[in-house]
Amino acid sequence: MRYLTFALPKGRLATKTMTLFEKVGFTCEEMKGDSRKLIFVNEELKLKFFLAKATDVPTYVEYGAADIGVVGRDTILEERKNLYEVLDFGFGKCRMVVAGPKEMEAKLKQNELIRVATKYPNIAKDYFNNQKNQTVEIIKLNGSIELAPLVDLSEVIVDIVETGSTLKENGLVVLEEICTLSARMVVNRVSLKIENKRITKLIEDLRKALSEKEA
């Protein structure tokens, strides 16, 4: 039997995912220790796990380096890889929004040409160009997105909001909601064919575990 390989994002999402996997019998004791290893193996169940940067997880899955990945929906929408999104884990919930000073609300409704700063240019472009039919100038930033409207780099931003406290502290508000986000399981298209029985059972078991958790 071949290994079933999982790519997980580093941090809290990996911890929550492994807690969920353990409920359906997919365990990996190696991951619980303080180790600098890059790949963790459950030899008995023929499972391999590795931790990667969240934005790289879809790439590992698309190219078959991993059969299965877990990643936020924001990364799936932004990276646009050719893979199957098969399950919503329901944790890691947040929102992708358009935010800015309150007075920008009117400009957004009038579909005026504005500048939008974001770490997610593909999501922003799709939202404004395809969903709102509004022409905007997208400015790609890599961090501290809230700074952009404060120093007149852009009129608004497109970013992830969890509690909204950072926006509030900087005098910004949510102007429009683009979509809700949460952790999703993705599967390589070829892997779903050659490991259909194992992967399908895992999906069913995880779906059952998630429904029991909600009940």
TrEMBL record:
Subcellular location field: Cytoplasm
Enzymatic reactions: 1-(5-phospho-beta-D-ribosyl)-ATP + diphosphate = 5-phospho-alpha-D-ribose 1-diphosphate + ATP
EC number of the protein: 2.4.2.17
GO biological process: L-histidine biosynthetic process
Keywords: Amino-acid biosynthesis, ATP-binding, Cytoplasm, Glycosyltransferase, Histidine biosynthesis, Nucleotide-binding, Transferase
Occurrences of domain ATP phosphoribosyltransferase catalytic (ranges): 53-207
Enzyme class per UniProt: transferase
CC per GO annotation: cytoplasm
Superkingdom field: Bacteria
Pathway(s) the chain acts in: Amino-acid biosynthesis; L-histidine biosynthesis; L-histidine from 5-phospho-alpha-D-ribose 1-diphosphate: step 1/9
Chain ranges passing through the membrane: none
Molecular function as annotated in GO: ATP binding; ATP phosphoribosyltransferase activity
Name of one Pfam family that matches: HisG
Matches recorded under NCBIfam families: hisG
Biological role: Catalyzes the condensation of ATP and 5-phosphoribose 1-diphosphate to form N'-(5'-phosphoribosyl)-ATP (PR-ATP). Has a crucial role in the pathway because the rate of histidine biosynthesis seems to be controlled primarily by regulation of HisG enzymatic activity.
Subunit structure: Heteromultimer composed of HisG and HisZ subunits.
The family this protein is said to belong to: Belongs to the ATP phosphoribosyltransferase family. Short subfamily.
Domain-related comment: Lacks the C-terminal regulatory region which is replaced by HisZ.
Name of the featured protein: ATP phosphoribosyltransferase
Native organism taxonomy: Bacteria, Bacillati, Bacillota, Clostridia, Lachnospirales
